[in-house]
Amino acid sequence: MTSIPLLPKNAPFSAEDIDALNKVVAKSTPLQRSWLAGFFAGFEAAQGGAAPVPVAPPKPRSPLTILYASESGNAESLAMKAKKAATKHGFDAKVYDMADADMALLGKARNIIIYAATWGEGDPPSRAVDFYQDLMGDNAPRLDGLRFAVLALGDTAYAQFCEVGKRIDARLEALGGIRAADRVDCDLDFAKQATDWTDKALSKLAPADTGGGARVVHVDFKGGAATGEEDDAEPAFTAESPLEAEISTLINLNGTGSTRETWHAEFTTDDPAFTYAPGDAIGILPENDPVLVDQLLKVTGLSSDAALLLKIQKSYDVTTLSKPLVENYARLTGRADVKALLEGDALARFAADRQLIDLFETYPEVLNAEQLVSLLRPLPGRLYSVASSLKAHPGEAHLTVGTVRWESHGKSRKGVASTYLADRRKPGTSARIYVKPNRHFRLPADGSTPIIMIGAGTGVAPYRGFVEERAETGASGKSWLFFGERNFTNDFLYQLEWQDHLASGALSNIDVAFSRDQPEKIYVQHRLWERRAELQRWIAEGAHIYVCGDEKGMAKDVDATLVKILAENVKGDEEAGRLRLKELTKAGRYQRDVY
Ligand SMILES: Cc1cc2nc3c(=O)[nH]c(=O)nc-3n(C[C@H](O)[C@H](O)[C@H](O)COP(=O)(O)OP(=O)(O)OC[C@H]3O[C@@H](n4cnc5c(N)ncnc54)[C@H](O)[C@@H]3O)c2cc1C
Ligand SMILES: Cc1cc2nc3c(=O)[nH]c(=O)nc-3n(C[C@H](O)[C@H](O)[C@H](O)COP(=O)(O)O)c2cc1C
């Protein structure tokens, strides 16, 4: 769990002033705190440096802007780490979310490091869209003399690998910027590569401008209430250092006649270092289906190697059919037909609905163990919205996992992590998990604020945690759940719990949309529209709106419906409605956790 650094009791202010300042600091966002830091540094410089007595002597520092475009937090956490490393390199670094940045910030920067993730199909993260469009647009400012370095985050499973980082890097150069360090494009196992690159980029940026920076006062927080580091603190359990947690409960939530398979999984630990907040995600480090690994070994002529099977089952990605993998396979085997897959859209056509096994079966070659492993990337973890409150279930994390199964090209396919849980784990066994904080999907700090929670299918997961948390903390604010699924009888996830929460008052309203219970399809966005008058009242009262679940199938339609609802107050002007939704986003009152 993270908390805001507060002024220690020994700060050079009266006790009353410390209380007053802490009230402001406790509510502040990282951007506001960075702004204040910059303001005071600038103020002191303008006063001729009449600064308070510093604990460490003030040093001139070179300004550095660190900017990130992030959806699920990876780029954000790299930016936060870069700030710490930058301080060691002698920079006065400030970190900005692209959501809060504009072209003026870019125009003023002299040295900049950008961490940019790619989402959708080669798109920027949702909160970074405006900045990205402005940067790519005709009115972007000239950036002559700006020294920049870009780290791109992505996943080689996607055709548009690291597209956003690549385009930002090229655009900064086209606008006159000077590339201080070459861009690096990182796959899902980015941790070490990113740390090494950050160090290199900081060294390259450092020598050009070591003077003239603001004078920064180093405050020693020792003995105070907070270290000042908690806000950006890494969780105790990460993908690189996971927790082995017991699976205490595993239940299929859908009825027997359902077309869905959604598992409620409870992970238990007595390790007090395991903490999370409602809205965070839990990562599962899965293991592959041994049957599939065995097929893979057989088709490459390695069938009898049990140790290799186990190693690949636990640690390597055996399903993703990526371009880098095909390039490496073509190089390794020297096959012209595999090389031909890399021309035009041949790979996109071949890879549609196919996996690695199809490549090996279609273009078979005998490989040795080393060659096979050299083709595979590490098996990435999968994220799941935490569906519980730690206050309601100490030592536990609950997840709601939809099982992925489909048929293609005559084969039964299985999602790696979801079927690892559904088929290959049982209560009493364990799995490796980690915590992925999501600072952009949080309950309001003030428990009296109304909340509107919109989700379909497994998108309901975080709301179970939200409502439990508000019940545990005695939050007085109203809460309203919009839930959508296919069928009332079989797919009403956590139905009894919602009824209990309604009875206790922890949940004020629930509206459901079951798409297949009537001839016409009804989805959550239809319910939102029907209930728009009351929704508008809640929004006017300051409600926070949350959307969680499928991006393509639900979140886009919900977004469009909210725009229409907000537009009603401005004579149906959709542009004004869109602007209002953006304002709500900026104010942290419209938060999305979509995938
Ligand atoms: C922040 C975040 C939170 C999330 N929260 C949840 C959650 O609470 N609950 C939840 O269930 N999931 C959640 N997810 C999704 C989850 O992380 C996994 O992506 C999902 O469970 C699939 O993982 P898997 O390993 O089972 O499947 P994978 O092995 O990763 O296979 C999935 C891939 O298979 C392919 N595929 C799947 N279905 C088909 C099909 N019908 N036809 C063709 N190809 C197909 C697609 O390429 C797809 O990307 C979340 C994702 C994110 C990023
Ligand atoms: C729904 C979804 C879509 C994605 N689309 C792409 C993509 O088109 N190209 C790519 O390189 N990576 C893609 N990724 C991978 C992310 O860029 C990668 O997970 C990155 O580390 C996320 O960084 P963030 O946590 O800062 O948002 C996608 C991931 C998800 C979950």
Could you walk me through the main structural features you see in this protein, from its secondary elements to its overall organization?
The chain has 595 residues and is of the alpha/beta class. It folds into 4 domains: 15-232, 3-Layer(aba) Sandwich (Rossmann fold), CATH 3.40.50; 243-286 and 381-436, Translation factors (Elongation Factor Tu (Ef-tu), domain 3, Beta Barrel), CATH 2.40.30; 290-375, NADPH-cytochrome p450 Reductase, Chain A, domain 3; 451-594, 3-Layer(aba) Sandwich (Rossmann fold). Helix content is 37%, strand content 20%. It contains 22 helices and 21 strands. The strands form 5 sheets. Strands 2, 3, 4, 5, 6 and 7 form a 6-stranded parallel beta sheet that branches. It has a 6-stranded antiparallel beta sheet with strand order 12-11-16-9-10-13, covered by helices on one side. Helix 3 packs across helix 7, helix 19 runs parallel beside helix 21 (551-567) and helix 21 (551-567) crosses helix 22 (574-586). The chain starts with 14 loop residues before the first helix and ends with a strand. Residues 208-230 have low confidence and may be disordered. It binds flavin-adenine dinucleotide and flavin mononucleotide.
List keywords for this structure.
595 residues, Elongation Factor Tu (Ef-tu), domain 3, six-stranded parallel sheet, six-stranded antiparallel sheet, binds flavin-adenine dinucleotide, binds flavin mononucleotide
